């Protein structure tokens, strides 16, 4: 019967072909309507459909079945025979090496598992006495692998009941879909757990091997809402092992400032579940919620200045009161005017912001800086929100470029790198023209060398928060203004600035969307090797070689900046070889401008923009 049916299906297209033929004959005999039927039946789509149908029926009939369920055994036998051979041929040796390779053996073993339908571990039989009401109790059988179970339990002290407190996202319990927070645990592996201490239950769980059988009463109020992950940048460090309030330290996740976290569960007001990105772990870990973490971290007491404080900072600047300021050029042993140009022109483009006078105000003691240490410290700011919600953002071609900020310890090479970048492509990269209250020198132009302004105007700009940074040196004020940055960006160029780390938060603005690159000092040995012929500018001398004290201070400051501000860094470049560092910077900047990057959600364009 089946055979007849199959052969009928086989021949169905032949039958149809003959129908077409017959209809063709009918057309020849001028039978009405036959023409239409013929066109229909000879349509290519109908033939394609029939072909597919035939293929499917053929596949259904020829269900593949294993020729031999024990391919590994056969391979073993062959290998034994080959090993026994006295003088095996080249082919036999090749076969021997093929069959003993781990890949082939794994393949054969997989073949055998499939052939024997050995997909799952054999589960123990369900208990005989199942209650009538199936909904009342759920029997859950989980097969333990090397992963933790991924669930925490808690005890109701009044009733002695043990509940599932939390199911870790992506863990074994979560993937089973059978255990949920609030489920009442009745038995584990046949042991009643009612009234038992949670530690004892955990002991049963950890000491069980293979399968674990749970009897639970499902939480009837349970609502499973699939939460959309939220992405956060950690602004503080966290270690669950040092946190006595965490309900289960083993389930906790360590993170440090700057880490990107994918928060997958925020249903608990105190403990969230998150994964660190880029994602290595398949399951999440417990982290304190923002409010919880905030309550743990009280703002730190003292603001540490980033440059180590030296005794010289306490001394009055000897040149401060002098009208004519002098520096010594150690190479030529000459006294030089401190306002002497240290400028450059490349391809007709003027390199602004590299004047000695401008760079020197930063080197004056911190007491003369016009920033208040407490208000400028981003640490206090960061502690206000231990997580910063972020989202992927890609700049659109019509948008202005993101502001590029280089951060680094004094002397690490920030100015050198910035200058090299601008020289490399002056029509793309540019620095902002600084403001100063010092008088204009001969040959200088306002808006090119500096924006020369009156003290009153400078102070007015300060009051209106127009400066990213400003300071005083030898009686004159110097600063980098927001307007100067905007000017570069509006010209369609990429603005590259370097700021002192405490000023980062002042430029973390939606319109600038800064991309911060930390210029890191290389290892102590490489630092000394590479800077053998380098020259630095200090408060009293230009072109002075690095001293051992300079190197130590640079290393210390570099570490300090990294430790304190890394949550603001989008990337890091180690300035070992200048050319390499410059190339790395170029590629990072291109990525920042043209590829998706994580930015705070508060910087994302709003709908009306
Ligand atoms: N990778 C490097 N290899 C060798 N020399 C370097 C390297 N990077 C920078 N230098 C040299 O080190 C000296 C100091 O660099 P630079 O003036 O750029 O420091 P800086 O970080 O801008 O410091 P400051 O903020 O104090 O001005 C310069 O002579 C510079 O050419």
TrEMBL record:
<dbReference type="Pfam" id="PF00595">
    <property type="entry name" value="PDZ"/>
</dbReference>
<dbReference type="InterPro" id="IPR050716">
    <property type="entry name" value="MAGUK"/>
</dbReference>
<dbReference type="InterPro" id="IPR036892">
    <property type="entry name" value="L27_dom_sf"/>
</dbReference>
<dbReference type="Pfam" id="PF00625">
    <property type="entry name" value="Guanylate_kin"/>
</dbReference>
<dbReference type="InterPro" id="IPR027417">
    <property type="entry name" value="P-loop_NTPase"/>
</dbReference>
<protein>
    <submittedName>
        <fullName>MAGUK p55 subfamily member 4</fullName>
    </submittedName>
</protein>
<dbReference type="InterPro" id="IPR008145">
    <property type="entry name" value="GK/Ca_channel_bsu"/>
</dbReference>
<dbReference type="InterPro" id="IPR004172">
    <property type="entry name" value="L27_dom"/>
</dbReference>
<feature type="domain" description="PDZ">
    <location>
        <begin position="139"/>
        <end position="220"/>
    </location>
</feature>
<feature type="domain" description="SH3">
    <location>
        <begin position="227"/>
        <end position="297"/>
    </location>
</feature>
<dbReference type="InterPro" id="IPR008144">
    <property type="entry name" value="Guanylate_kin-like_dom"/>
</dbReference>
<dbReference type="InterPro" id="IPR001452">
    <property type="entry name" value="SH3_domain"/>
</dbReference>
<comment type="similarity">
    <text>Belongs to the MAGUK family.</text>
</comment>
<feature type="domain" description="L27">
    <location>
        <begin position="64"/>
        <end position="122"/>
    </location>
</feature>
<dbReference type="InterPro" id="IPR001478">
    <property type="entry name" value="PDZ"/>
</dbReference>
<dbReference type="Pfam" id="PF02828">
    <property type="entry name" value="L27"/>
</dbReference>
<feature type="domain" description="Guanylate kinase-like">
    <location>
        <begin position="401"/>
        <end position="590"/>
    </location>
</feature>
<keyword id="KW-0728">SH3 domain</keyword>
<dbReference type="InterPro" id="IPR014775">
    <property type="entry name" value="L27_C"/>
</dbReference>
<dbReference type="InterPro" id="IPR036028">
    <property type="entry name" value="SH3-like_dom_sf"/>
</dbReference>
<dbReference type="InterPro" id="IPR036034">
    <property type="entry name" value="PDZ_sf"/>
</dbReference>
């Amino acid at each position: 019967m089946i055979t007849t049916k199959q052969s009928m299906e086989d021949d169905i297209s032949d039958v149809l072909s003959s129908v077409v033929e017959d209809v063709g004959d009918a057309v020849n005999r001028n039978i009405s309507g036959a023409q239409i039927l013929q066109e229909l039946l000879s349509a290519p789509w109908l033939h394609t459909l029939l072909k597919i149908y035939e293929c499917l029926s053929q596949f259904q009939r020829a269900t593949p079945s294993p020729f031999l369920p024990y391919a590994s055994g056969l391979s073993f036998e062959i290998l034994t025979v080959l090993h026994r051979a006295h003088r095996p041929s080249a082919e036999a040796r090749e076969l021997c090496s093929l069959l003993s390779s781990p890949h082939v053996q794994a393949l054969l073993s997989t073949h055998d598992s499939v052939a024997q339908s050995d997909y799952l571990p054999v589960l123990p039989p369900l208990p005989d006495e199942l209650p009538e009401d199936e909904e009342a109790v759920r029997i859950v059988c989980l097969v333990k692998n090397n992963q933790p179970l991924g669930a925490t339990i808690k005890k109701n002290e009044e009733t002695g009941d043990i509940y599932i407190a939390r199911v870790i996202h992506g863990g074994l319990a979560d993937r089973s879909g059978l255990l949920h927070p609030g489920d009442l645990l009745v038995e584990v592996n046949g042991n009643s757990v009612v009234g038992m201490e949670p530690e004892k239950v955990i002991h049963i769980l950890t000491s069980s091997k293979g399968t674990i059988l749970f009897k639970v009463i499902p939480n009837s109020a349970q609502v499973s809402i699939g939460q959309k992950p939220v992405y956060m940048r950690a602004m503080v460090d966290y270690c669950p092992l040092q946190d006595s309030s965490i309900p289960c330290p083993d389930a906790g996740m360590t993170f440090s400032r700057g880490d990107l976290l994918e928060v997958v569960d925020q249903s608990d007001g105190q403990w969230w579940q998150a994964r660190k990105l880029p994602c290595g772990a398949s399951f999440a870990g417990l982290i304190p919620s923002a409010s919880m973490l905030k309550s743990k971290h009280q703002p730190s007491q003292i603001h540490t200045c980033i440059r180590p404080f030296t005794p010289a900072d306490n001394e009055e600047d000897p040149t401060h009161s002098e009208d004519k300021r002098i520096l010594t050029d150690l190479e030529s042993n000459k006294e030089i005017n401190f306002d002497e140009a240290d400028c450059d022109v490349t391809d007709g483009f003027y390199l602004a912001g590299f004047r000695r006078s401008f760079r020197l105000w930063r080197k004056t003691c911190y007491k003369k800086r016009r920033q208040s240490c407490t208000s400028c410290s981003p640490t206090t700011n960061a502690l206000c929100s231990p997580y910063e919600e972020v989202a992927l953002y890609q700049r659109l071609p019509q948008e202005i470029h993101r502001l590029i900020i280089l951060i680094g310890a004094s002397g690490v090479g920030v100015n050198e790198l910035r200058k090299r970048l601008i020289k490399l492509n002056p029509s793309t990269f540019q620095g902002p023209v600084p403001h100063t209250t010092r008088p204009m020198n001969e040959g200088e132009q306002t808006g090119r060398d500096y924006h020369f302004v009156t003290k009153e105007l400078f102070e007015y700009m300060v009051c209106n928060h127009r400066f990213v940074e400003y300071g005083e040196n030898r009686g004159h004020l110097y600063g980098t203004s927001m307007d100067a940055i905007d000017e570069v960006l509006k010209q369609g160029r990429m603005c590259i600035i370097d700021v002192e780390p405490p000023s980062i938060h002042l430029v973390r603005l939606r319109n600038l969307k800064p991309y911060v690159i930390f210029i890191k000092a290389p290892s102590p040995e490489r630092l000394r090797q590479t800077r053998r012929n380098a020259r630095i500018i200090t408060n009293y001398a230009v072109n002075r070689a690095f001293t051992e004290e300079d190197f130590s201070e640079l290393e210390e400051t570099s570490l300090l900046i990294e430790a304190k501000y890394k949550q603001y860094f989008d990337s890091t470049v180690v300035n070992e070889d200048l050319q390499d560092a410059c190339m790395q910077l170029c590629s990072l900047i291109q990525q920042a401008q043209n590829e998706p990057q994580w930015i705070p959600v508060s910087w994302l364009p709003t709908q009306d923009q």
